[in-house]
Amino acid sequence: MKLFSQSFHYDDNWTIVALAFFLRYPNPYASHVLSCDVISREFTDAGALRTTRLILKRGNLPAWFPAGIMPRQESWVVEESEVDPHGRVVRCVTRNLDHVKSLQVIESTELKEAQDGKSTFQHTDARFVSRFGWGLTKRIEQFGAAKFKANVERSRQGISLVLRSLRELREARM
Amino acid sequence: STTAMSSSLTDACTPLKTKYDSCFNAWFEGYLEPVVSATSDEQRKALQKAKAEEYERNCGAMWTDYRDCVQRAVADKGLTQLLEDARKENPMQNPPSPPTKP
User: Fold this and answer.
1) Is B83 in contact with A114 (Cβ distance < 8 A)?
2) A25 touching B, CB under 8 A?
3) Cα–Cα distance between B7 and A43 in angstroms, integer?
4) Angle at B75 between CA B71 and CA B77, to 5 degrees
5) Cα distance from A121 to chain B (closest Cα, Å)?
6) A66 touches chain B (CB under 8 A)
7) Interface subset of B 21-60, CB within 8 angstroms of A
């Protein structure tokens, strides 16, 4: 197993970052997202909004990856999120549904109001577990973690771009 | 292209998805601001109740059409069981360890 952890800070308030998070697909930094569907959505008793989405992502396998292991270089990902407007926090967990023996990636993200009450803090944790064997397990986990680091940065750029459009839209309305 | 990225898992559901997503996005923007700035628990609960009803009124029928379409597509692709198994584990009830403070 390999672990990965990263934090970001957005200058914008939590409300607008939470909105941008939900609106982040499509954006030019997420061209690997082929489809995104809401599977279920409900309010919890505490008044939080819970959403499950099913996402199809295109992956890029390294050249050394054994041919024929993944017939399609695509992966289904399930994303469960909870928006708690009272606690000012969005929690989100994603994991791949298929190819789990080759590589299971479980990603947890939290978007929380920062202590200054004006900006937003993002923390992402990811776990990589391969049960591939053939002496490749460690290499696959390391590849997954390295690629993930780049993906988290791309995801942040995507959210920042959506944030910019939201700000411009609000200024235009005023 | 932008349209391809906002697609549903099957072309047949994409128009229903687009319609529902627009409804939800508009509602969600109007939901967060007032609920976040509520000054008392009582006010927040009343607002949340009113907003949940507004969501049902505005987007409820679109959601049912879209959901039925997606459920059929998920079944056609043989994903129903995979999805149910993953959701049974329900990661939201076992949230990750809280992150360190900024």
Assistant:
1) no
2) yes
3) 25
4) 120
5) 7
6) no
7) 21, 24-25, 28-29, 31-33, 35-36, 44-45, 48, 52
Q: List, in order, residues 6 or more apart from A104 with CB less than 8 Å away.
A: A95, A96, A127, A128, A129, A130
Distance CA B78, CA A109 (A): 29
- pLDDT of chain B, 102 residues: tens digit per residue: 333 347 999 999 999 999 999 999 999 988 988 888 888 889 988 998 999 999 999 999 999 999 999 999 999 998 888 888 877 775 555 444 444 444
A100 at the B interface (CB within 8 A)?
no
> Residues A49, A83: contact at Cβ < 8 Å?
yes
Q: Is A2 helix (H, G, I), strand (E, B) or coil?
A: strand
Q: Give the residue from A81, A20, A89 showing the smallest Cα distance to B25.
A: A20
Asked if B79 and A54 come within 8 Å (Cβ–Cβ), the reply is: yes
Whether this model's pTM surpasses 0.90: no
Tokens of A145: 């973690």
ipTM over 0.90: no
